Amino acid sequence: MLTVEQGNEQVLQNIIESFRGKKGITISLLSKIQDTFGYLPQEAMSKVARELDISEASLYGVPPSTLCFGLTLPENTPSSFAGVRHATFKDLFSSLKR
């Protein structure tokens, strides 16, 4: 699992750049960040807000209303689960299509 602190700032920057200038990207952007880092790191949320001129409040308003996002890495997560990502909207919708 990646963390922003482990020198993966460029990974986060690439994600941000892929969404720059697009409208209605909040859930897709957060989903991509969570797929990459395993949760939504506070550092990532702050950087996204600054870079894309989105209020942090609007970013933090999405996860609590959506069961798919985690704002923290679960405590006592066994290392064998460290690479397991959370379900995303894409995962949920694809399972509904079956």
Mean pLDDT: 74
Strand percentage: under 5%
**Helix-strand string:** HHHHH
Class of secondary structure makeup = mainly alpha
Instruction: Give a quick account of the main beta sheet: strands, pairing sense, barrel closure.
Output: none
Overall tally of structural domains: 1
Q: Whole-Å distance between the termini?
A: 29 Å
The count of strands amounts to 0
Oligomeric state of this protein = single chain
- C-alpha Rg (nearest Å): 13 Å
User: Uncertain segments of ≥5 residues (pLDDT<50)?
Assistant: 78-87
Task: Describe this protein's structure.
The protein is an all-alpha fold. The protein has one domain. 50% of the residues lie in helices and 0% in strands. It contains five helices and no strands. The longest helix has 12 residues, at 26-37. Mean pLDDT is 74; it is low at 78-87.
Strand and helix map with partners:
Layout: H1 9-19, H2 26-37, H3 42-52, H4 56-61, H5 89-97
